[in-house]
Amino acid sequence: MDFNEVLLKRESIRNYDPAKPVDKDTLNRILEAGRIAPSASNYQPWEFWLISSKEMLEKVKPCYSRSWINDAPHILVVTGDLDQAWERADGYNSLQTDLAIAMHQMVLAATNEGVGSCWVTNFDPDILRKALGIKESVKVYGITPLGYPRATYTKRTVIMRKPLEDVVIYC
After folding, report:
1. CA-to-CA distance for 144 and 11, rounded, in angstroms?
2. pLDDT per residue as tens digits for the range 105-137
3. With a threshold of 0.85, does the pTM exceed it?
4. Contact status, residue 124 vs residue 66, Cβ threshold 8 Å
5. pLDDT computed for residue 27 by the predictor
6. Which of 5, 13, 19 lies closest to 154, judged by CA?
7. How far apart (Å, rounded) are the C-alpha atoms in residues 98 and 121?
8. DSSP characters over the chain
9. How far apart are CA 117 and CA 139, in angstroms?
10. Please, which of 1, 11, 17, 146 could form a disulfide with 150 given CB 3.0 to 4.6 Å?
11. Within 13 Å, how many C-alpha atoms sit on residue 146's CB side?
12. Contact in structure between 97 and 40 (CB atoms under 8 Å)
């Protein structure tokens, strides 16, 4: 699939087939996309937690209140440490930017592999901290389920985005 096709096919999937886990090689290609992501000063202040075991999924899934996540065979949790991220002279810390880049690369890699994802930020970080043993200095940035859509899933036909002329300022 070429890059523009990946961009146009990416969508938030909320309908997973729990009977179709993603194989390890495919998951590793998705994770590799995050690993090789650029970061400020190449500090790479991230960790990617791939939750696949039934036991851990049961502990992690309550962090999000929507029931559709319960069918996902995998959940990816992206975390980072503020102390490991680059900081500009005015105090700006690049952690959120770095993690967003890495997460987005993994979401696009999942799309390229035919694997569904849905970037979720409305989760309870305390549940994840407790379930995974994440220390307080580490920020839980985002999660995404990973899995194949059910056979009954209908892909969107229209991408609802503002027109280019509404978001670009030419100077």
Report:
1. 12
2. 999 999 999 999 999 999 999 999 999 999 988
3. yes
4. no
5. 98
6. 13
7. 16
8. --HHHHHHH--B---B-TT-PPPHHHHHHHHHHHHT---GGG---EEEEEE-SHHHHHHHGGGS--GGGGG-SEEEEEEEEGGGS-B-TTS-B-HHHHHHHHHHHHHHHHHHTT-EE--B--S-HHHHHHHHT--TTEEEEEEEEEEPBPTT----S------HHHH----
9. 21
10. 17
11. 31
12. yes
Structure tokens at 54: 């039934």
| Residue 35 in tokens | 């690993």
Q: Is the pLDDT of residue 160 over 90?
A: no
Bridge-based pairing of strands 74-81 and 116-117 is unpaired
The model's pLDDT over 56-79, given as tens digits with 9 standing for 90+, comes to 999 999 999 999 999 999 999 999
